[in-house]
Amino acid sequence: MAQERRHSCRPESRASAKADKNVGAPWVAALPRCDISSTCRRGLRWARPLLALAVLAGLVTSAVAADATAECRIQELRVATDGHPGFTLMPPEQTGVDFTNALSEARAAENQIRLNGSGVALGDTDGDGWCDVFVCALERKVALFRNLGGWRFTNVTATAGLDFPANFSTGATFADVEGDGDLDLLINGIGTGTRLFLNDGHGHFAESENSGLIRRHGATTSALADIDGDGFLDLYVANYRTNTVRTTGFALLNVGGRRMIPPQERGRLELTPQGRVLEHGEPHFLYRNDRQGRFRAASWTDGTFLDEEGRPLAGPPHDWGLTAAFRDLNGDGAPDLYVCNDFHSPDRIWLNDGHGHFLAIPRLAVRHTATFSMAADFADVDRDGHDDILVSDMTSRRHGRRLMQIAGMDPYEISIGVFDDRPQLDRTVLQWNRGDGTYAEVATYAGLENSEWNWSVIFLDVDLDGFEDLLAATGHMFDPQDIDAQARIAAKGPYPQSMIPKKLLMLPPLAQAKLAFRNRGNLTFAECGKAWGFDQVGVSQGMALADLDNDGDLDVVVNNLNGALGIYRNGATAPRLAVRLKGRPPNTAGIGARIVITGGPVMQSQEMMCGGRYLSCDDTLRTFAAGSLDRRLGVKVIWRSGKQSVVAEARPNCLYEIFEPAASAEEELGSPSTKPVAPVDVPPPIFQDVSELLNHGHHEEPFNDFGRQPLLPRRLSQLGPGVSWFDLDGDGWEDLIVGSGKGGQLAVFRSNGQGGFKRLNEPPWNQAVTRDQTTVLGWNGAGGTPGLFVGFANYEDALAAGGAVRQYAAGQPQVSDAIAATPSSAGPLAMADYDGDGPLDFFVGGRSLPGRYPEPAQSQLWRQQGGRWVLDAENTGQLVNVGMVSGAVWTDLDGDGWPELVLACEWGPVRVFHNDRGRLRETTAELGLAAYLGWWNGVTTADFDGDGRLDILASNWGLNTEYRATKESPCRLYYGDFDGSGTINMVETSRDETSATEVPHRNLDTMAAALSYLRERFATHADYGRATVADLLGPVLSKARRVEAHTLASTLFLNRTNRFVAVPLPREAQFATAFGVCVGDFDGDGHEDVFLSQNFFATQTKSPRCDAGRGLWLQGDGQGGFRAVPGQESGVRVYGEQRGAAVCDYDHDGRVDLVVTQNGAASRLFRNAGAKPGLRVRLAGPPANPAGVGATIRLQFGDRFGPAREIHAGSGYWSQDSAVQVMGMPVAPTHVQVRWPGGKITEGAISADAKEISIQATGQIERVR
Are the C-beta atoms of 1230 and 1196 separated by less than 8 Å? Predict the structure, then answer.
């Protein structure tokens, strides 16, 4: 092993400056070295000026923390001032690079694996300070181009010892595998496995004859990292296949009428229960470096790799590997491993224990992956301090082409209650890091889900604004996803064995423009390839980054199939800071180190990686945005060894070469680093999961919604259950009631008064229900007898018989119909005394018309008169046109004591009906709410800005689904009897950005299954892909009815007396469809918080499920703003399809607890253990309304009021919160004010040490405890 070369602490001499002339600008000076063992360790802080060379205009000063002082060299960069963000494609005539990765049609047809192309490796092979370029090739020879500076290169392949046939080489990686300070070369190939070429230190290579690498299989991408902490770089090689049955064909055996895989093909081919033949890929290789520059293949079955449960694997996975990359995903300092696999092979994500043993990531950590995973890259996309993961797929950005692409994703079969599976989606995925080892997939929110046939992706801050942008290499020699072409080819079959390879040549080409996406800084991206000069059309595959002109920004090299090598000069002029690491041998490039930059426009971080690009490898230099020239930046390096280096006051437009601190004696001997990660003091979460107190699961039976209406956007049969907190036995302790699906039982959990529950199993609670239950409401009937009203949906049986609302009474074994069913299926229920006569009245929301979606459903209002329910025909008439109602709440928006009715509507707005002393009139438009048409689910009200007025908060579909909607480009649905069959059909539409026309959302196969005449109208999928809605429906369009939505964000509407101002909730609230909405001061700070239940899986069979939520606490700031509280902080992590949610202080400790239901899965109960206790307030209303439903409570703190809190009977999504309120007390309250139904206001003083009070309708306040 070569000895590390020490750099002088003195200013460079003229001789040394001259020796470095090729670097582009002389080194400034070396910082005085401060070893970890020196006196600086005792806490001394110091700053010492750097002596500048005469060529520099000023003096560079750096102050560093004493316990991590960095030894570094600084080079001033020559940065152009007359450029712009983006790239210039350098012509071969200027660069001298004459290279094309050629592949003829004949050689492609011989073996389709060759179509995956080749990559590029970048690095300084000869140590002259300029980054050189190595390119792999398929039919021609590989090539090495030495960088001469000034954008000139020369071919040195022969003199470098690399002049040999390419043999269909795929990937290449430069790495110092021996630890001697120079770059060795790894080359992968189809059928040749992996080859190692050792560098003599001067750019001359010789193949290692005893590398230990396996010289077979179809090797693709290599990645290197020090997996076990011994300092040496270990190697992972992803394998694909050497050939495929797509080229060779295959034959099955017929044994007794059964199709079987021939014995010689077992392991390679698999016959699925559905009759499909799957071809598997090849085992991959993990090689451990033996510290002598040789490798030893690790076993897949000896415990090196463990499954999610920690069990050794039974055998090596046979995957279609395209890319593998090492990256520290969980922040423990050890390189983890992400492997991108094609086709049905799942992506593999392995977490490293720091000693080279890998555990599969937990099932719930990643909810779904891409189907055709091609490449991965990592970046802190939103600069929240956590690395996110992007994996590319091949879905087109053009709507018309997407409609003619073959889907690889199997139809998603709904398995009710199953949420720990990991389906594959036919699109690019962006895994947003939550910071606790789990990810929310947010590519559609970010605008990155469709990125064409995308071989390679790279995060790069192109415009140097501090946020990493994205580049994508695209295209294919042929288009195997063209449905029409595949149909034409199949129609000409069957083919003899000799003709099977030639089927490939019948496919059309797929040349595509490369893509560039600008990071807007808010987790969304905008495509700007043309503006940035990165939109050339062709077939681009391997891609890598390096600073080819030594100006400190990163240029791009792309290996194009049958096209000239693409060399792109980065034209950025913004200030930058470049960092190169000098690690201690054997990890001389600091692979695995994390670099953190502060003081720039935002905090930035990157990790030094080796390989891991699709078939390619970057140079080991990282660039960061400086913001402006007058800034002084902080640089922190956390090395793989665990040591740290710090540079303070770093100057923009400089390259800092930072040296790893001295090793301990143990490390000098090459012992693995076992330095533990420092423990982080993390406070306990606010909520504790105590779901075992219930041990309850919601019962949901399957129903085929699409058998009745094939073109439904989504299932309507899996919308429950609701949940309620209500003192059912009158003992002063709230009980818990959870609705059921058909065939299950209403679940009633009686509180034992000690924080526990017992489920009641006697009649009527043990009766099986005959329909899905919706909302559950508790109420006190005649004589104060407690009971329950439960909504029953007739959506599945479509019968206008039985009860829409059924009544359960404690002690009564029979369940009675309170309100008769109608043709509309019931959904939300809400109660209030809206006519001012004392007893509570009823709203019954019409959720849908069975079999006639999206026709308006009928909602009703019922008054209580003489102990029975009477339809309020006049006010019900006001509800004729409200549409499909998902959520409802009665709330006094104008403070006059009369509750308004607020409805969350699908394909409509959040509607408000003003209450004029018992007469309702819709004022949605007057209040400015008609402009927000959405797919609203739940709704509630609270005083979020502390002004005493009740604001509206409504849950919506979110911004992270396949649907995009704006006012300019709404989602629309045309419906009617299009084919004269008497059934309601529908066409979902969206706006095609390219043609600016309204086009069908779903593909021809899906549409024609319901509207068979479309097969006659559109002969091909291409024809259909060009069709507008007018083309699709023809004359029927003029008769079709239409609904639309253009607001899909869950939204807060702030009450401004005579109008509402819309404020979208934080982005985390938009990552998933939201249902339940409940309000409470969860942390006791005196501000109203919100909980949202999230997720929806019951989509169309080819539509991705919405699974990026796990329940969300939004912490209010008292001014109408919210902070999304991560699950590791809140303690709430629910991964299934959440529906109803409700709050209650069930253990009477003054903290708001939470229950969340899941469709077909366990109900989750969370005890609040971390909030500052609040004041429990119980209202004692009149006999007809003993809980004081409709009253508003407000605490007073001296001369300041807290937020207003209203008591609801039915709110959020099909749920009911406890009537006993827990009011936050940032300080001790002095008074309490209550506005009772009807407008009467009472006030009274509160004892300073009161924990719970009861307030009579007369205003009398009783201290309970």
Answer: yes
**Tokens at residue 489, please?**
């080819």
- The Cα 479–Cα 819 span in angstroms is 59
Rounded to whole angstroms, how far apart are CA atoms 1104 and 428?
Answer: 12
Q: CA gyration radius for the chain?
A: 33
- Give CA–CA dist 1212/886, Å, rounded: 10
pLDDT value, residue 257: 85
Residues in the chain, pLDDT under 70: 1-69, 407-412, 664-680, 782
Interatomic CA distance for residues 516 and 1053, integer angstroms: 36
**CA distance from start to end of the chain:** 76
Please give the backbone phi and psi of residue 1125, each rounded to the nearest 5 degrees, phi first: -90, 120
Cα–Cα distance measured from residue 655 to residue 758, given in angstroms and rounded to the nearest whole number: 68
Closest-CA residue to 1204 (of 1221, 1216, 1219, 1181)? 1221
CA 283 to CA 217: how far, in whole Å? Answer: 9
What pLDDT does residue 2 have? 36
* Dihedral class, residue 533 (left if φ above 0, else alpha if ψ from -120 to 50, else beta): left
Given this model, what pLDDT does residue 407 score?
Answer: 67
| Whole-number Å distance between alpha carbons of 760 and 751 | 10
Rounded Cα–Cα distance for residues 863 and 873 (Å): 10
Q: Looking at the DSSP assignment, which residues form a beta bridge with residue 861?
A: 843
Q: What is the pLDDT of residue 56?
A: 28
Give the pairing of strands 654-659 and 576-582.
parallel
Instruction: Mention every residue, 6+ apart, whose C-beta is less than 8 A from residue 247.
Output: 109, 110, 111, 112, 113, 500, 501, 504
**Which tokens belong to 666?**
């143990």
**Per-residue burial over 180-214, b = 16 or more CB atoms within 10 Å of its CB, e = otherwise:** bbbbbbbbbbbbbbbbbbbbeeebbbeebeebbbb
The CA–CA distances, whole Å, from 272 to 259, 262, 275 equal 11, 14, 5
H or E element that contains 1021:
helix 1021-1025
Tell me the H-state helices in 378-521.
399-402, 443-446, 483-491
Whole-prediction pTM value?
0.94
Bond before 494 cis per omega within 30 degrees: yes
Residue type, 287: Y
Please enumerate, as own/partner, the contacts of 675-681 that have beta carbons within 8 Å and a separation of 24 or more.
Answer: 675/641, 675/642, 677/332, 677/333
Beta-carbon contacts of residue 1022 (< 8 Å; ≥ 6 apart):
400, 404, 484
d(CA 423, CA 351): 20
Phi and psi dihedrals of 401, rounded to 5? -70, -35
- How many of the other CB atoms lie within 10 Å of CB of 383? 18
Location of structure tokens 């992968």: 188
Instruction: State the residue for tokens 């470096």.
Output: 289
DSSP-assigned beta bridge partners for residue 1064 = 1051
Strands 71-76 and 27-30: antiparallel
Contacts of 461 (CB under 8 A, 6+ apart): 467, 468, 469, 519, 604, 623, 624, 625
Question: Measured between alpha carbons, how far is 219 from 324 in angstroms, rounded to an integer?
Answer: 11
23: amino acid identity, one letter = V
Residue with tokens 């018989």: 801
Are the C-beta atoms of residues 723 and 1141 closer than 8 Å to each other?
yes
CA distance 850 to 796: 7
- Listed in sequence order, the residues at least 6 apart from 1226 whose beta carbon sits closer than 8 Å to its beta carbon are 1084, 1085, 1086, 1172, 1197
Residue 516, classed as helix, strand or coil, is strand
SS (H, E, C) 901-943: EEEEEEEECEEEEEEECCEEEECCCCCCCCCCCEECCCEEEEC
Contact of 850 with 794, CB cutoff 8 Å: yes
Contact criterion met (CB below 8 Å) for 134 and 118: no
In whole angstroms, give the CA distance from residue 657 to residue 635.
Answer: 11
Helix (H) or strand (E) holding 1006: helix 1004-1010
